[in-house]
């Protein structure tokens, strides 16, 4: 629990999205979570793919409770009780697993989802949501509430075309400013130069993640995020850089919005895990 002197800063919500499936949302969500956690930050990954979520598999954990239970019991859950529904990974990262069967996706409502995320904000520095493909009706409000939207593409024409359309939709929703583009597998063979992608999509910059199928596939198949098992590989270096970029942006925002340094203070002072943990 935070003391009066150490006012708890509410966790930041990072929505990981893509216009196309199979593009790397889950791989990047779990590895980003562990990379942030290595910076002594409390992180929860929420499986926002309500039908076929595989965050638990990607981190090799067996959840006792899932989002289905949270949805069913949402009226009885407060900011303390929510931690009972999370599954702990050995790194300390927490997971709110997706429903175990696709038909349970219907139980998920936008209202209950927003409440869940707000409850999680009290005990975490970052809430990473691994969204389903595109923009799901239940998740629109969640995207509106997110602090950052990581929109993932790769160099394939279909991915780029759909990402552009999704950018336009996000602009119409008035939330385009929160988007940070991620060009995954940017070293893959393609007629399109990775460096041209941000401009093509109307962005100034992007995070670039290299192509490394062996390590990516191992990470997902073994359920051991590569930032743990292969912390020096090209993919891991890119993920740590991304984590730094995200932390850096939050620091900037906190300083400019408060004139104070709440999260900055938390990061620079040797805050131990567990001090603010759930
Ligand atoms: N940087 C990368 N290098 C090589 N392979 C990658 C990379 N990123 C993702 N992949 C591969 O792409 C596939 C899809 O990854 P992942 O499951 O994370 O995508 P997803 O967007 O979550 O998919 P879905 O839409 O089904 O949820 C996996 O086989 C993964 O190994
Ligand atoms: Mg996925």
Helix-strand topology string: EHEHHEEHEHEHEHEHHHH
What helical percentage do the residues reach? 25-40%
The helix/strand class is alpha/beta
Q: What is the CATH topology descriptor?
A: Rossmann fold
**For this structure, what is the CATH homologous superfamily?**
P-loop containing nucleotide triphosphate hydrolases
Strand content: 5-15%
Explained architecture:
- This protein has 278 residues and is α/β, with parallel strands linked by helices.
- It has a single domain (12-268), classed as Rossmann fold (3-Layer(aba) Sandwich).
- It is built from eleven helices and eight strands.
- It has helices at residues 25-37, 55-58, 67-73, 110-121, 140-145, 157-172, 197-200, 213-222, 226-229, 234-258, 262-268, and strands at residues 12-18, 43-48, 87-88, 94-96, 126-131, 148-153, 179-184, 206-209.
- An eight-stranded mixed sheet has the order 3-4-2-5-1-6-7-8, sandwiched between helices.
- Strand 7, helix 7 (197-200) and strand 8 form a beta-alpha-beta unit.
- Helix 1 packs across helix 10.
- The radius of gyration is 18 Å and the shape is globular.
- The relative contact order is 0.18.
- It binds adenosine-5'-triphosphate (ATP) and magnesium ion (MG).
- Residues 18, 21-27, 49, 133, 184-185, 209, 211-213, 216-217, 220, 235 line the site of adenosine-5'-triphosphate.
- Residues 12-173 form the AAA domain.
- This is AAA family ATPase.
- InterPro entries: AAA_dom (IPR025669), P-loop_NTPase (IPR027417), ParA/MinD_ATPase (IPR050625).
- One of its GO terms (molecular function) is ATP binding.
